[in-house]
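Anyone up for a design puzzle?
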């Protein structure tokens, strides 16, 4: 009896035993995979924050040798529409690459679904690809404050994306009335599924600036969630990200949550003045020169 039992066991596992083992292994994988995935995503998020800190330090380095100006403008070659200039000559990316301070194109956020800046679409594919290879690219989005500072009433123009309508690149001297730890410079960029460069998703180049006119509340809708996992967002977003990191003028990196799960950091237009839906008061959204919100032209005179 014992001899027959030993012979049967020596012949291998029974079908039932194999099924039990397979079930246990599958259960362990199902338990471990979410933890492994969460750890991997946490690592990507930490890398993104580290890259933003490095870029923030790079802006300070640039300012030290350029009269306290944090950059020369935005990453925007649309000069026919009053924008900055060739992306390898003008703008925060060119500043860092050409000054041998940093290479933004090699410092992409791995969590963000986008891989390119939307403005590379202004170039033929071969040139855009080469620019990206040379480091003139980013999947972070610049804050309007950093590129434009404030509307210039002398310009007589209220197109706030144009250089000539504003005071231009942010100088540290313009932050006398606002704490530097509240002024955003660069953050994870919003990405729309239908906007692509070289076959991959792209981020917005710069936030829109004051909503509804020169003295409106800052619109940060072009910042966007790039980290974490939540419910899937459809439409033109098509991702499940929920958090975003932003580097501020003092060099620290804060992170924020897309509370209403619409894929962007929108504003509530039903209130007056409009209010931020997702970003708190730690993100300044008023007028730098007076250090607060204002929709009153007389407040700036």
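Challenge accepted. My sequence:
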């Amino acid at each position: 009896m014992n001899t027959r039992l030993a012979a049967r066991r020596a012949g291998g596992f029974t079908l039932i035993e194999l099924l039990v083992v397979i079930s246990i292994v599958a259960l362990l994988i199902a338990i471990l995979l979410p933890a492994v995935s969460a750890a991997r995503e946490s690592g990507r998020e930490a890398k993104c924050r580290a890259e933003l800190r490095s870029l923030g330090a790079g802006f300070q380095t640039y300012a030290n040798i350029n009269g306290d100006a944090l950059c020369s403008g935005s990453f925007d070659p649309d000069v026919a529409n009053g924008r900055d200039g060739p992306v390898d000559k003008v703008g925060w990316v060119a500043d860092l690459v050409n000054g041998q301070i940093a290479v933004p194109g090699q410092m992409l956020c791995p969590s963000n679904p986008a891989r390119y800046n939307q403005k590379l679409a202004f170039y033929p594919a071969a040139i855009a690809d080469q620019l990206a290879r040379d480091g003139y690219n980013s999947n972070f989005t610049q804050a309007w404050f950093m590129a434009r500072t404030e509307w210039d009433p002398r310009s007589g123009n209220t197109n706030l994306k144009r250089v000539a309508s504003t005071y231009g690149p942010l100088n540290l001297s313009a932050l006398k009335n606002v704490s530097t730890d509240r002024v955003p410079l660069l953050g994870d960029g919003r990405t729309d599924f239908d906007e692509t460069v070289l076959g991959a998703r792209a981020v917005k180049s710069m936030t829109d600036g004051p909503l509804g006119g020169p003295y409106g509340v800052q619109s940060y809708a072009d910042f966007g969630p790039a980290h974490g996992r939540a419910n899937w967002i459809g439409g033109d977003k098509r991702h499940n990200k929920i958090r975003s990191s932003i580097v501020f003028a003092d060099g620290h990196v804060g992170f924020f949550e897309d509370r209403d799960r619409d894929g962007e950091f929108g504003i509530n237009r039903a209130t007056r003045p409009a209010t931020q839906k997702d970003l708190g008061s730690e993100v300044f959204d008023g007028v730098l020169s007076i250090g607060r919100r204002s929709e009153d032209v007389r407040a700036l005179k």
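A detail worth pointing out: Residues 2-300 form one domain.
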